[in-house]
Amino acid sequence: MAAIIIIALVVMTIMVSFTSLAGASLSVDHYQHTCPQVESIVSGAVHKAAMNDITVPAALLRMHFHDCFIRGCDGSVLLESKGNNKAEKDGPANISLHAFYVIDNAKKAIEAVCPGVVSCADVLALAARDAVHLTGGPYWDVPKGRKDGRISKAIETRQLPAPTFNISQLQQSFSQRGLSMEDLVALSGAHTLGFAHCSSFQNRIHNFAPNKDVDPSLNPSFATNLRTICPFHNKAKNAGSPLDSTNTLFDNAYYKLILQGKAIFSSDQALVNNPKTKSLVSKFANAKKDFENAFVKSMIKMSSISAAGGGQEIRLHCKHVN
């Protein structure tokens, strides 16, 4: 879940079975005695990077989503391809992920004071929280104690929810990971940060249907603007649109835009196609605090997902297994 931009892919059968560890083996005090400096080190690394590149917060938040949705939150998205194994970060849905250096820099600083103690998965979970807080969003205590996984396969990125998903596909994707409809709507609010490339929403503005070139659920003037930015034979690699009108600020503008027909992704607009999710969209659009409270609750839940078997080690370098 940068921006939080995912290429349209068909979800295949989930190859990993998920269990939620919420409250089971994670603790907000996990490093209290073994590495009390960990949170300030990660926060410092995120802040430094964000001051130089305003896209960093969205990138880190998206990276954490994409980590948790494959093999659970085990840092597998951080591993590099090696030999014949193509890792998650090189899968089609993850090609635009960036800011891995922020995690690497934080981990290096942590290893200097607490060698072999803090997992890369925990560093990423903390960085995602700091990214939200740094952009004006809520702060929460992150449960810690994750282990790092040793498996990372690009083909498994097919499991990520695509921006073309309808509400049924979204519900199935989230429920397979123990996440509810409210979690779906709250976590989709991460799209308040970031940028979407044309390829991720061109299905809505060109050849939408045999007798409709544009998705009728799009606000007409908004659709015209998107078609100007992203013409049918677009060749500009970096062309696209901000995910909402305040895309470097963590707020509830995303939900207001959905209600106006100005959501970027099909999967965003799909949230009003179900009575329960539409009610939540309206609730969050009208009350930022309600959104923030729900987002924190759902983030803690999502960041506690573990694949069957879980992580196995504390990596010394986040790019490579020990």
From TrEMBL:
Superkingdom in the source lineage: Eukaryota
Membrane spanning stretches: none
Compartment(s): Secreted
Cofactor(s) required for function per UniProt: heme b; Ca(2+)
PANTHER family: PEROXIDASE 25-RELATED
A Pfam family recorded for this sequence: peroxidase
InterPro entries: Haem_peroxidase, Haem_peroxidase_sf, Peroxidase_pln, Peroxidases_heam-ligand_BS, Secretory_peroxidase
Chain ranges of the Plant heme peroxidase family profile domain: 25-322
Protein name, UniProt field: Peroxidase
Signal peptide span: 1-24
Catalyses which reaction(s): 2 a phenolic donor + H2O2 = 2 a phenolic radical donor + 2 H2O
Claim: Calcium is one of the keywords in the record: yes
